[in-house]
Amino acid sequence: MNFVMKQALGGATKDMGKMLGGEEEKDPDAQKKEEERQEALRQQEEERKAKYAKMEAERENIRQGIRDKYGIKKKEEKEAEAAAAMEQASEGSLTRPKKAVPTGCGDEEEEESIVDTVMKFIPTPLMDMFNKK
């Protein structure tokens, strides 16, 4: 039967033993090879990270040159200045500074005028029903 299987598979006999339930071939240097492979992968990863760190440092130098040339501040610097300004504004206050209310929000007079405007467009028979209640 082995002969027939070998002929049918055309020489793919290495994995045949495993498929038929036979024992796997043990490579005496398999563990050593695996350690070498893991070491090579780790080294490649370190080289890749170093390469990209170097590229990012070069990009940051170019960005800083552009910022210096045009007087642009970094986002972190802007945020730090804004936080410092807020801190100075609220030094004497015990509560946090109030946020500005956008126009149209919370104006009761404006809401009443909207209701009046809507009531103008309602037909008179419906208006009479609302007024009776």
- Give a quick account of the main beta sheet: strands, pairing sense, barrel closure: none
Question: Total strand count, please?
Answer: 0
Outline the low-pLDDT stretches: none
- Mean pLDDT figure: 77
| Form type | flat
Spatial separation of the terminal alpha carbons = 99 Å
Following the backbone from N to C, one meets helices and strands in this order, namely HHHHHH
Radius of gyration: 39 Å
InterPro entries: Synaphin (IPR008849)
Family: Belongs to the complexin/synaphin family.
Subcellular location: Cytoplasm, Cytosol; Perikaryon; Presynapse
Region (Disordered): 1-60, 76-112
Fold and architecture overview:
Binds to the SNARE core complex containing SNAP25, VAMP2 and STX1A. InterPro entries: Synaphin. Keywords: Coiled coil, Cytoplasm, Exocytosis, Neurotransmitter transport, Synapse, Transport. It is found in: Cytoplasm, Cytosol; Perikaryon; Presynapse. GO terms for molecular function: syntaxin binding. This protein is mainly α and about 130 residues long. The protein has a domain at about 30-90. About 70% of the residues lie in helices and about 0% in strands. The chain has six helices and no strands. The longest helix has about 40 residues, at about 30-70. It is flat and about 105 Å long. The chain starts with a helix and ends with a helix. The mean pLDDT is about 75.
List the helices and strands and how they pair.
Layout: H1 2-9, H2 16-19, H3 30-70, H4 75-89, H5 108-120, H6 124-132
